[in-house]
Amino acid sequence: MALFYMHGVPVGYVAILLALVASMGGFIFGYDTGQISDILLMDDFLVRFATCSTPGVASTCHFSTARAGLIVSLLSIGTLVGALLGAPIADFLGRRYAMVVECILFIIGVIIQITATNAWQQFGMGRWVSGLGVGALSAAVPMYQAETAPARLRGTLTATYQLFITFGILVAYCISIGTRHMPGAGSWRTVVGIGFIWPFILMCGIIFMPESPRWLASHGRPKEARHSLARSHGIPRDQENSDPFLNAKVEEVSTSIEHERRICAGWIDCFRPKHKTLYRTLLGMTLQSFQQLTGANYFFYYGATIFQSVGIEDSFITQIILGAVNFGCTFGGLYVMQRFGRRLPLIIGGIWQSCWLFVFAAAGTAKTPQNNPGIGKLMIVSACMFILGFSTTWAPGIWILIGETFPTRTRAKQGALSTASNWLWNFLIAFFTPFIVFSIDFRYGFVFAACNLVGAVIVFFFLYESSDLSLESVDLMYNDPKCRPWTSRQWAPPGYRSRYDLAQQNKAAGANKVVGPSGADESRIEKVEYGDANGIGTSATSTAFSSEDEH
């Protein structure tokens, strides 16, 4: 039974539950990202793995720039490889079982880390192995959420992945501040070891969730695909074969999958110009790269060290403040991406973030923060304002776009390539930040400020507005030669005057005011033109409400 209706579209409790359970993959990502900043400053960790002028005395120990960069960035190298492996694993095993395998990989990495005694290389390799799991999860989770979430809630439910990333970062900060004074290795091993809990929750929970209906349909399992759609929409099992809304949705998915099945897709197909596939591959990779180039991880990876350098006595507390701002504001991001679409928030967010990074960098460059408490406070405020903008726009928005921009036949591979570009820049920033900060100090903020402006320009000129459209309609929009990114908000599927008209028709469909395919109003029949592998046009007909209003 449907939990509630949104614009006439039924939403079941399973839809909410699957988004929350799958988002534990984001929590794992966030927790592993947030813990390392504080661990690098813990006394026992310094004594064991840093270079000490007086052995056993933490105050005389420090990490070289290269060693600190490697310990932080080895996770990112693993995630880069994992993101590329995530596509074939998710396509072969299915989205759910792929997540189970990836959780096991992460757990193996945690074991390697907590068993390290004096070799920093072992700890680093443990982070690399964990990264394999985190990277693969970062490709699989948003894709699974976008393919399984119903209608109008696609944007919000997919954005919970980013919400859980921020929650994981905040929890890591809080646990670190609680364990930092523990004697011996317990201070950092407790933080790392608690990481066992999160993949266990994901593994146990995801087994009880429905598999992606699009993956099931593409693997010749139509009955299971229908049942998966019914569960996410809260349609009772005895109505699965008679519900007109579900019949239309199943027909839409089946038609799209049948067309794509005729075209054998490999990695090389992600780079073919036809159907704007190359365009979307490059767009996804670029947007994911610029999400890293916003500079957010500059604060998350090295925040404790940064605020220690501006004269803050307890940099751990400042980290928690930043983490709380990041987590709290991400709730606003769920609303922003649902209410205002994709393009406008990303453009405004890029400009906002750039302004505050200019303030941060200018303040740190104009005067020495350690000798000017007012400057240090201004830098903290500007960092918080930057995080506010990032967590409401670029943080959730990019992950939503990765799930909804690509066609089904290459979605897993294009999502993997895009996510891999994110992790590539994640590694580059994590590894080279200590070297860059040593050379130019807080002027590093100017670099990120400029990148945020470039990101806003790229969104304006190249990103299409995909809110309020089904995944199949998004594909049609990108292939419409008359549609341009800056006019894409006004685009609607064939047979509709506007996206509002589409929403109204969905309301009628949800209320069973529109009958199934055999009796649909001819003025509302949507003709979708496809081209097969040889460029020969074929057509598929679906009812008006088959282009279900998705967000």
Write the layout of secondary structure elements.
Blueprint: E1 4-6, E2 9-11, H1 13-22, H2 24-39, H3 43-49, E3 51-52, E4 61-62, H4 65-93, H5 95-114, H6 120-148, H7 154-179, H8 186-193, H9 197-206, H10 213-218, H11 222-233, H12 244-261, H13 277-293, H14 296-309, H15 315-340, H16 343-366, H17 373-392, H18 394-404, H19 408-440, H20 444-462, H21 471-478, H22 499-510, E5 526-531, E6 537-542
Antiparallel strand pairs: 1-2, 3-4, 5-6
What does this structure look like?
The radius of gyration is 24 Å and the shape is globular. Helix 4 (65-93) runs antiparallel to helix 19. The strands form three sheets. Strands 1-2 form a two-stranded antiparallel ribbon. It has a two-stranded antiparallel ribbon with strand order 3-4. A two-stranded antiparallel ribbon has the order 5-6. The chain is 68% helix and 4% strand. The protein is mainly α and 551 residues long. Residues 513-551 have low confidence and may be disordered. It has helices spanning 13-22, 24-39, 43-49, 65-93, 95-114, 120-148, 154-179, 186-193, 197-206, 213-218, 222-233, 244-261, 277-293, 296-309, 315-340, 343-366, 373-392, 394-404, 408-440, 444-462, 471-478, 499-510, and strands at 4-6, 9-11, 51-52, 61-62, 526-531, 537-542.
